[in-house]
Write a structure and sequence with these properties.
The protein has about 160 residues and is mainly α. The chain has helices at about 1-20, 25-40, 50-75, 80-95, 100-115, 120-160. It starts with a helix and ends with a helix.
Length: about 160
């Protein structure tokens, strides 16, 4: 049973890494569940304090990723349409031109969304698209950093 839990925990950590980039998979929360499963497997001896700190980090980065695009879009003067456009652009980019589409299409989606909302101000639309894109890059980077760090701790603990 320990081997099954080891494999499951490892797969959850990898799914968490993938979910850091794909918007439909909750990356860091899956990675955290992977840490818990590894602890239960007996292959990793994470302390309670370690797990509490990591749940706080996962919650913080998840909330940040949820609110950052809205906040940055508003900071740059944008509408909800730009945020929606950025998300739609990401989903389209995953299928149309991976992996570059996941980087380019959120910007294009935010630009198109803002232009649909206010077609008279192209300069503002580019500014808003940049803000939305910056939030996407920051959020994705934070999720990747958290997921990679959890994997590094898991690997170090398993092979220690």
């Amino acid at each position: 049973m320990e081997i099954v839990l080891l494999i499951l925990g490892s797969l959850l950590l990898l799914a968490g890494l993938v979910g850091s980039v794909l918007p439909v998979i909750p990356g860091p929360p899956l990675g955290y569940v992977g840490l818990l499963v590894l602890k239960w497997s007996g292959y990793a001896d994470f302390s309670t304090r370690f797990l509490i700190v990591w749940v706080a980090i996962v919650v913080a980065v998840s909330l940040l990723d949820y609110f950052m695009p809205v906040w940055m879009t508003k900071l740059f003067g944008g509408s909800r349409a730009a945020t929606t456009g950025s998300t739609v652009g990401l989903v389209v980019g995953i299928f149309v031109l991976p992996p570059w589409g996941m980087i380019l299409f959120p910007f294009v989606g935010a630009l198109v969304g803002e232009l649909i909302y206010d077609s008279r101000n192209v300069g503002k639309a580019f500014k808003v698209a940049f803000g939305s894109f910056a939030a996407f890059i920051f959020g994705t980077g934070a999720k990747l950093a958290v997921s990679i760090t959890m994997i590094a701790y898991a690997v170090a603990e398993i092979f220690a």
